[in-house]
Amino acid sequence: MTMSMAMAMAMPNSQSLKASPVRNLYSELVYVSSSVISAFSRFRFQAKAPMNFTCRLKNNSVYEDLPAVGEDLPPDYEEWMPKKDPKDRRRAGILLHPTSFRGPYGIGDLGEEAYRFLDWLQETGCSVWQVLPLVPPGRKGIEDGSPYSGQDANCGNTLLISLEELVKDGLLMKEELPKPVDADRVDFSTVANIKDPLIAKGTDWAAERLILSEGELKNQFEDFCRDPEISSWLEDAAYFAAIDETLNTISWYDWPEPLKNRHLSALEEIYQSKQDFINIFLAQQFLFERQWQKLHNYAKMKGIKIMGDMPIYVGYHSADVWANKKQFSLNRRGFPLLVSGVPPDAFSETGQLWGRWWPSKRFCQVDFLSCPLYDWKAMERDGFSWWIRRIQRAQNLYDEFRIDHFRGFAGYWAVPSEAKFAMDGRWKVGPGKSLFDAIFRAVGKINIIAEDLGVITEDVVQLRKYIGAPGMAVLQFGFGSDADNPHLPHNHEQNEVVYTGTHDNDTTRGWWDIIEQEEKSNVLKYLKITGEEDISWALMQAALTSVAQTVIIPMQDVLQLGSSARMNIPATQFGNWSWRLPSSTTFDELEPEAKKLRDMLSVYGRL
User: Fold this and answer.
1) From the candidates 113, 404, 452, 557, which is the catalytic residue?
2) Is 519 a known active-site residue?
């Protein structure tokens, strides 16, 4: 019997329903039934294809054809355990910038102490080393030593070059090394006076000896200079440094017009007059690159990934802006129209303007040469080539890297250059997906961490998820409000990087000493500890328990140090970036801390 026949037999005769109150209902049923029958008559049932069932075993073998239902499974069936994706591995790492290592000349470097740190890091079970930007810090500004206000987005900080490594390369003699300097904090001017003459400024020192040498090291130097991914930024950086050294003005804005606007004849004249300086500049960058990549390879051998850091913006007085003016928000004379910053936040009631203040006769009392904003429309017309080169450079230096102020790609705070306070700015639309689509097409997958702290709107969240980048959570921000605070561990996400604090935070010990009693009570209640317990390790443990895949702990917290060990205080210009490991601390003596940390990582599945 067909479906239509069965439905017809079940329905009452229409004549018997002429006076019935349910006639209207019957009519509707007939209409609906006809529609259903019509639909079914057009539909052809097909046998469902059997599911292709595969099972990957521990030894990576695969069962593709399972037995039929009810049949016996293979004898090793109980060994068919789920296999974890290596990309989902839980891990932990330490935040420690190379300048903070102990070293004989007033600053940490890429020499022996860096290798000892990696050995110690492996003992802890940590598999990530996070560093701050490795760019040359600006030497003219009040914010001396800041890796976030450097003169070039791609060059390396030559103050990190190890003199002892130069001895190993035959570019210095052991007896030529200066006397050791015992300094608890980095004085960047003093360090430059010690190291620069030995590396670059002498007529018969390391860089010059490399240039005049013959052999494998010289061949590597020449290959470095010819590498198209290197030369695309290195040449501009060398010319910029040569002009800057010659004229010694506050910024390139004050250079003579032919140099300011890169006339070919003016650049040729600079090359002829400053050829030795340019060659030495290139040699310095090669020496930094050689030592960094050697250290990077050692980290890989130890199973440790290096996480770098990339500021979203670059300084005005930089080769990046000078050589790419059309990519930035500048007027016809080259002065910034809009500058970068953030609106009022926890660090500043008037917001933050990012950059440096200079004495000036042209602009009242001060001339603020901040970090100029990008001209995103111009960048898009150019295929975002400047950003693609920058990302390629970061991939060469690091295994993965954090992009500072990621939210600026979705919506950015634009402040008129003449404004005195950042609060006078306004929000503007960022490049969003178009930027990252261009990057992905050019370089493929990139491993980035999105610094998404501060004012985070829905468009920022959606952009981060679109590119698959983990965001950030900071435990120190978690205890001043309610249970919905995203920085509390129970609100963390798997695709996230959790910190006890960042380089912009106080140390955990210092934070604990200054927070209000109500917030302290929240901490004690949440962590289920008493005030007598060590807060640094308690907060570290809370971070490690998180569902987040990655946890990063500042070295200061491992050492339980107070506010004097803080790396940076945002919105301030003095006394930052100079912290070093205490002179009494060696990695050989930190075996108890390594064991304690390894035990914690083992408990929470982060080895």
Assistant:
1) 404
2) no
Give the C-alpha separation, 171 to 163, whole Å.
Answer: 9
Report the b/e string of 207-241 with b at 16+ CB within 10 A. bbbbeeeeeebeeebeebbeeeebebbbbbbbbbb
Give per-residue pLDDT as tens, 369-394: 578 999 999 999 999 999 999 999 99
Confirm whether 404 is a catalytic residue.
yes
Catalytic residue among 208, 375, 400, 504: 504
Any idea what the Cα angle at residue 91 is, between residues 296 and 587, rounded to 5°?
55
- DSSP per-residue string spanning 28-46: HHHHHHHHHHHHHHH----
Query: What are the angstrom distances between the C-alpha of 271 and each of 173, 236, 325?
Result: 31, 12, 21
64 is a catalytic site residue:
no
Cross-strand partners of 55: 63
Tokens of 524: 């004690």
Residue pLDDT, tens place only, 51-75: 444 555 445 555 566 788 999 998 9
Token couple for 532: 């007598």
Give the contacts of 166 (CB within 8 A, at least 6 positions apart): 172, 198, 199, 206, 287
Alpha-carbon span 115 to 366, nearest angstrom: 44
- The tokens for 159 are 């103050």
Tell me which residue of 12, 119, 143, 11 sits closest to 586, measured CA to CA: 119
DSSP labels, 86-140: GGG--EEEEE--GGGS--TBSS--SSHHHHHHHHHHHHHT--EEE----SPPPSS
φ, ψ of residue 442 to 5 degrees: the values are -85, -40
Degrees (nearest 5) of the Cα angle 324, 328, 332? 90
Q: Quickly list DSSP for 584-605.
A: T--GGGGHHHHHHHHHHHHHTT
Which residue is catalytic, options 109, 289, 451, 557? Answer: 451
Sign of CA dihedral 45, 46, 47, 49: negative
